[in-house]
Amino acid sequence: MFHKLSIIAVAGLLTASLFGQGPGPRFGRGDFSLVRPEFGISNKVVQGAPYSAQAVTQFTQTLANGDHIQRTTTGSIARDSQGRTRTERSFGAIGALSAGRDAGRTVMIFDPVASKSYVLDPVSRTVRSTPIPAARLNPRVHQRPDQPSTKTEELGTQVVQGVNAEGKRVTRVIPAGKEGNEKEIDIVTETWYSPDLQVVVMSKTSDPRYGDSVYQLTGIARSEPDPALFAVPSDYKVREGRPNFRGGPPVAQ
Amino acid sequence: MSENQGELLKALRALAANCPREAPARLEARLRTEFRTQKRRRALATWLPAFGIATAAGIALLVWIHGEKPSAVPAAAAFRAPVANQSVAPSINEEADAGFYPLPEAEALPAAESAMVVRVQLPVSSLELMGVPVGAVPAGDDSPDSNVQADLLLGQDGLARGIRLVE
Question: Structural domain of residue B59, as residue ranges?
Fold first, then answer.
């Protein structure tokens, strides 16, 4: 009960506080430190469309004095014909949050063939193996009840990063006065989706309240990735299940 | 055996010898008709399932031949039905009760195709800066220098979609 109240309080107050302040840095240096990656999940399994690419995300905040804070995170993504995915990512920053120290890189393998999700820690040479829940592939994110009105525009088809992609622009409008704002706030999200790969190859988000982000896959190669990418190295010590995980998808120890 | 019984026996044998040994033509015709009807029913019962299976296989073959896009199937079902094409994956909202609460800045982000859950440690002072009252964190951890842990749900772009405190 206390936990639920805490979460509600965190979400509510976080929302209120973030809505209540103008653009600018909300977090100082070393805003978080990574304890550990827990697990990886996927919304769907795509078979027969292998690829590998670099994933680059740029997050930009504009300060009240006109200055900018920009953070870039990079990672790599690979998927084989069987739908297994490997994501390698650093956690130097998560959006506006900056890590207190270099957390290194983390490797996650989502293997629906074996119904397992693996989190590899290259430093300790350990891997945590978690069964993929049959009916619970993704955590639910509670939706806010007061969603702003939206307008969707189809942008047609273009070649983005070497692949055909269908564009869509969604504009969310927060009317003047809704959140104490004098003028209407337009939040724009542009997404370019590859029907062949069934992934978003580029997305741009512009939110005057929090900043802008650009995500894109670069160097897309559509050949079959090295099978070794989806296997746990033999010298890694395997641990089963998630440690002290509570409230999420079921854990089979 | 009495004399009367002996005569009756002789008479019965004589009657049997004189009676026709085949069924009447009308009865035989009725029997043949009934036999043919039953034979047709048995044949139908035998071939109908086979015809159904063949039809289904033909339809499946057509679908497979005309399928152009790679399959996208729910992870759990993907390897139970490897030839399935273009099945729609479950929505992220159909999923479980993991209880992440949305970050306002995630409202505008594209839907997560894949996600990572990472556990991070934040100083209480950071939570306070974010508007979280000290009383909302677990007892004993309410010093500004203390840290609390939270799980962040990150999308494929590495940006956070949701948060939850960890006891």
Answer: 3-66
Nearest chain B Cα distance for residue A235, angstroms: 24
**Chain B: residue nearest A91 by CA?**
B158
Q: Parallel, antiparallel, or unpaired for β A85-90 and A105-111?
A: antiparallel
Q: Enumerate residues 6+ apart whose C-beta is below 8 A from A106.
A: A37, A88, A89, A90, A91, A119, A120, A121, B116, B118
Domain count, chain A: 1
Whether residues B110 and A203 touch (CB distance < 8 A) is answered with yes
Q: Is residue B84 part of a domain?
A: no
| Nearest CA distance, A166 vs chain B (angstrom) | 14
pLDDT at residue A124, rounded to an integer = 84
B96 and B161 share a domain?
yes
CA distance B72 to A126: 31
Residues of B in contact with A37 (CB under 8 A): 116-119
Secondary structure letter of residue B5 according to DSSP: H
Give the global pTM: 0.64
Q: Nearest by CB to A44, which of B72, B126, B156?
A: B72
Q: How many CB pairs below 8 Å do chains A and B form together?
A: 291
Domain of residue A70 covers 25-139+209-240
CB A143 within 8 A of CB B101: no
Average the pLDDT over B125-146 and give the result.
57
ipTM of this complex: 0.74
Tell me the CB-side half-sphere exposure of residue A232, using CA atoms within 13 A: 22
